[in-house]
Amino acid sequence: MKLGVNIDHIAVLREARQVNDPNPLDALPICKLAGADQITIHLREDRRHIRDHDAKNIIAHSSLPINLECAVAPEIIDIVTRLKPHRATIVPEKREEVTTEGGLSVTGKQKSLKKAIEQLQKHEIEVSLFIDPTFESIEAAHSLGVEWIEFHTGKYANIYAMLYSNLGNTPYAIPTLDLPRAELAKMLHDELKTLRCLSGDAAEMGLRVAAGHGLNYQNVQEIVAIEMIEELNIGQSIIARSIYTGLEQAIADMRALLIR
Hints:
By secondary structure, the protein is of the alpha/beta class. Helix content is 47%, strand content 16%. It contains eleven helices and eight strands. The longest helix has 24 residues, at 181-204.
């Protein structure tokens, strides 16, 4: 299974003090040495972490493919076509959100999505849509002619956290935190079954399947077991661990968990 390392949170640390250090660019050789298959970054409309010069320099200097996450906003799509990453993953954005809260609403935005996808593909950029795991979203993505989909795994990660820890107060939509363990276990089983079945459906349509969001060293192996998912994009948990182990070791530890 391929590993895309999201280095946004290196820029988050830099922006906390609005200084020049740490520079996300410095992570590129470490990611490659540790076994990453691609670098993932998100150029948000509000530029809260990765900035235009970061994206430009990372794409220009990386020996690994760059997966650039972006909104469907025309001005952002114009920037992406100029930068020419290997892949553009179109994601939803809200200014007030802490992190991406769900998948793209594919079924309601075909016209704007189609225009953006055609523009990106015209510039020889692969396109992926970051979607919730529903059959309707897969069908819509297929109809739009993209090469990839990436399943938002936040719901899975949230259920896993409630079942195996006392975290609580998680950001994803679960009816109640006061659920019996048996019910949580069934919810987790059902969510994994959904991801497994829909990954097969997507592959049968000719779509390549990635997944990401909320994945960490504790919960990732159940996703790794889904054979039709060929790539995971993981950031926050890797950067968090790197504070204690160093970035190379943190990536290597995750890389080891992705072996099938």
